[in-house]
Amino acid sequence: MNRRKEVAVVSSCNTKFVPHLAALFVSILENSDPKVFVRFYVIDDDIELESKNLLRYSVKNSRMNTDVEFLKINKKFFKNLVTSDRIPETAYYRIAIPELFRGKNVERILYMDCDMIALNDISKLWDLEFNGAVMAAVEDAGFHQRLEKMEIEADSMRYFNSGLMLINVEKWLEQNITKNVLKFIEENPEKLRFHDQDALNAILHDRWIALHPKWNAQGYIMAKAKQHPTAQGEKEYEEARRKPYIIHYSGHIKPWSEEFKGASKKYYEKYANMTAFRCVKSFPKYPLYARVQRNTELSH
């Protein structure tokens, strides 16, 4: 397969997390093929205009052949689902993301959580052959028994982390994955420990292909907190630790917190320092900087 000249990256956040999303986007641009146009799509959870402007400035300052588009999720998808302080409506957003590309000329999208930093060229993932699979992802370290606990019959007990999903848009829409996942959540709330991630695995269990863990080096992989149940899997974990392509700060303590002590904090700091949220004080074009700072987690 020839490398595509445009890649689509999708993420979701609110105003407080935009600075961290900016760090992710800048890290992607700084490490990807400069000839590839990177189009970022942000699921807009009521992001303030000033923060949107700073995000756009951050990516354009990195390079020009890129763009940011803000999208809104139709909340009708979630009207029958349980929400709470622990499980907000936004937790369901990634399930419906492919529906936003219905009728558009977008073959695949890379969904990424905003607590990630890219250290390698994500456009390499556009060389991957799906061979009929709906998506590609990385196994979730230490949760290999979730399908069994949810009483899901599957050819494999592999369980993926939904923080990074390379989605075959046509197959997802063709097979009504969004509708089926939401139906599973509605009908089986007692089975769900990791809510939308559990439901995605329940529906997609035999319809995804595994990426090397380098592409989603989760917190407990980097910290050696959990072992893979197979020797080959453990070997790949070690390879991911030595040379991660994407670091996923998946633990409760994030790298923008003073409590985070992991060595990988340096990668977050490097790219956060390249965003407008860190350096905009020197640009009088953005007089509302102080207000933005007060409303983001960088000031917490």
Automatic annotation (TrEMBL):
This protein's record includes keyword Transport: no
GO molecular function: glycosyltransferase activity; metal ion binding
Gene3D superfamilies: Spore Coat Polysaccharide Biosynthesis Protein SpsA, Chain A
Keyword annotations from UniProtKB, A to Z: Glycosyltransferase, Metal-binding, Transferase
InterPro entries: Glyco_trans_8 (IPR002495), Glycosyltrans_8_dom-fam (IPR050748), Nucleotide-diphossugar_trans (IPR029044)
Protein name (Swiss-Prot/TrEMBL): Glycosyltransferase family 8 protein
Organism annotation: Enterococcus mundtii
Domain of life: Bacteria
